[in-house]
Amino acid sequence: MAQFSFSIRKEGVLGIVGHVGVAHVHSHSGFVQDDSAGFAAAGLFVRDATGADTRIARVESDRKAGSFTVFTEGGGSGTAFARRGITPAEARIAAGAAGRDALFTQVAATETFGRIAGQGSMEVPAAFQGACALAALDTFVKASEGKLHRIEGEIPGNFDQYAGTVLDIDGIPCSLMLVINGTKGGLGPDEDCEGNTNPGAKGRLMEELGLDSMPSVVLESKAFIPGKASELTENTFLVRAQKGVDCTRLGLALKASADALGLPARFAEDMMPLVPGAMEKATREIGMQIAALAKEFAETDPCERKVQLSAELNRICSEDLGGVTFMGNEVNDRMRGAGTLPVVTAVLSMMVTKAYRDEMVIPEFTLEDARHYQEIILGAFRRMSEAKGF
Description:
Mean pLDDT: 96
Oligomer: single chain
Order of helices and strands: EEEHEEEHHHEEEHEHEHEHHHHEHH
Structural class: alpha/beta
Radius of gyration: 20 Å
Low-confidence stretches: none
Number of strands: 13
Distance between the termini: 20 Å
Number of helices: 13
Shape: globular
Strand content: 15-25%
């Protein structure tokens, strides 16, 4: 059993970063994910070090403010609001979330409301997910007794928070950062500060922890990737480290660790290229699709066609737009879709099969999944430590 404790060191030698993109569920072409996986997996390290209880104790709804406040058994709380308000029925539904784990934010939201989507299409579940994330992080900060340093984000309209510390994991000092990317009003997603991107106050905290210069694993989503799913016979871990760009030796250590554990895993050196202009091009293309639909709608007379066009616009906005709204063009040019700092990064995520997607509709990141992330990271860090003599 691995040992976790807060370190006396100010910097680790290896890094772990995990984020939650609140309501970042869909992208184009049928891509669908649980984008809270990284936050949950990284948070599990802190939970193991503190013994904090992230189960939801109660949920309070302020219908005048249109907000949820989630309270955990560990004494944390977090508040987020829905732009178009909360109905009495939604307040009653939210109250039934007691006992669920706020650390697994998207699962808490889907189990409570049935479904979640972003881009302002399902503001109430998105706001609830955001409140869960804030409550879980607040629980950890309080349990750490000052050892987990939290700062507020600087993006207007967001409630981003970042928290960092150094943990001794089986004697290896590791810098760890938890990242919440959430948009006020339950709109989401806005993730210009996801992963180990390093602007502003987040960058200064990363520099204090050495996360801007040490080999770091960025923990990412559990996702159905249409272009890869046909190759899968079982849900499979995915390690990405772009050749000539990222930290390949960490990527190979993660893959070797998964293999040693008997966990299905693939390593890719060609899935995260630096392609300046890619996000701008995708944004323009989807904007043209919307414009064509809007033009047809403006010229349409039959009611049934108006309904069909409305449904397609709704689908595009609630799903496909998630692939371009989550990040600005300029940030994507430098950091790519997972928000990854070149040279020092490798990414660990999960791919699910089509059968799993068909059954679940939306992937759910579980405690078992998080433990596997943890085990893979531990094995990789031991390999890295032995090679470097940390």
